[in-house]
Design a protein that fits this description.
The structure holds two protein chains of two kinds.
Chain A (H helix, E strand, L loop, with lengths): L3 E4 L2 E4 L5 E7 L5 E8 L3 E10 L2 E4 L6 E3 L9 E3 L8 E8 L9 E2 L3 E5 L1
Parallel strand pairs in A: 2-11
Antiparallel strand pairs in A: 1-3, 3-8, 4-5, 4-9, 5-6, 7-8, 9-10, 9-11
Chain B lengths: L2 E3 L4 E5 L4 E3 L2 E3 L6 E7 L6 E7 L6 E3 L2 E6 L4 E6 L8 E10 L7 E5 L3 E6 L1
Parallel strand pairs in B: 2-12
Antiparallel strand pairs in B: 1-4, 3-9, 5-6, 5-10, 7-8, 8-9, 10-11, 10-12
Classes of the chains: A mainly beta, B mainly beta.
């Protein structure tokens, strides 16, 4: 069972560089989301998608872009990395229409921007 | 707006002590679900339990138990006879509708409680 797969697991960027964090799920979940986790801040929602072609902003969207061309994939793009984006990033998926289903998380990406 | 509050930022106990992690939530929905997740030092997020708003029965699973009280909007988690392996960050989460009466749902997380169990 692959579940939710995130790549890479670790990444170091220089300020101003761009990169894409990849997320793929094989459970046919409509709902996918990206969170960032910072010390003392818990999990904060960056962007989410309720299906292919539909995305929306979460709590902390600035500096990040997303797109959802397929049900399976939900990449997160950093256009110009900043040190404030140093964090651990989690991708999650869950069924959109079933309120009681838990979210399934990827293993996380630890990003450092220097 | 929906909100989950975990007032305890860090808790430290000695092995074999019982410990309770608090979770208080706010929602306007009449039907909702609550969840607990565990994040051990390895970093992954592990689902522990879900509870729906119509079921206020306490649940016990081994050394873990959950107390849901709708009257106080709380969903507390107790670990009995704690062990070093219980050391982790624990998150409480609320499943909420994305829009009033809608059928799209998302999870709102609390900030987490870091539990350290010392030998």
């Amino acid at each position: 069972n692959a579940g939710v797969t995130q790549t890479p697991k670790f990444q170091v960027l220089k300020t101003g560089q761009s990169m894409t964090l990849q997320c793929a799920q094989d459970m046919n979940h409509e709902y996918m989301s990206w969170y960032r986790q910072d010390p003392g801040m818990g999990l904060r929602l960056i962007h989410y998608s309720v299906g292919a072609g539909i995305t929306d902003q979460g709590e902390v969207p600035n500096g990040y872009n997303v797109s959802r061309s397929t049900t399976e994939d939900f990449p997160l793009r950093l256009l110009s990395a900043a040190p404030s984006q140093t964090s651990v990033y989690f991708c999650a998926s869950r069924s959109r229409q079933v309120m009681n289903t838990e979210a399934f998380f990827g293993q996380g990406t630890r990003l450092t921007v220097v | 707006a929906q909100k989950v509050t975990q007032a305890q930022t860090e808790i430290s106990v000695v092995e074999k002590e019982d410990v309770t992690l608090d979770c208080v939530y706010e929602t306007r929905d009449t039907t909702y679900y609550l969840f607990w997740y565990k994040q051990p030092p390895s970093g992954e997020l592990v689902f522990l339990i879900r509870r729906n708003s119509f079921d206020e029965q306490n649940e016990i699973s081994g050394r873990y138990s959950w107390n849901f009280q709708k009257s106080t909007s709380s969903f507390n988690f107790t670990i009995t006879a704690s062990q070093v392996v219980d050391s982790a960050v624990y998150f409480c989460a609320l499943s909420e509708a994305l829009s009033s009466g809608g059928s799209n749902y998302k999870l709102t997380f609390g900030k987490g409680t870091l539990l350290t169990v010392n030998p």
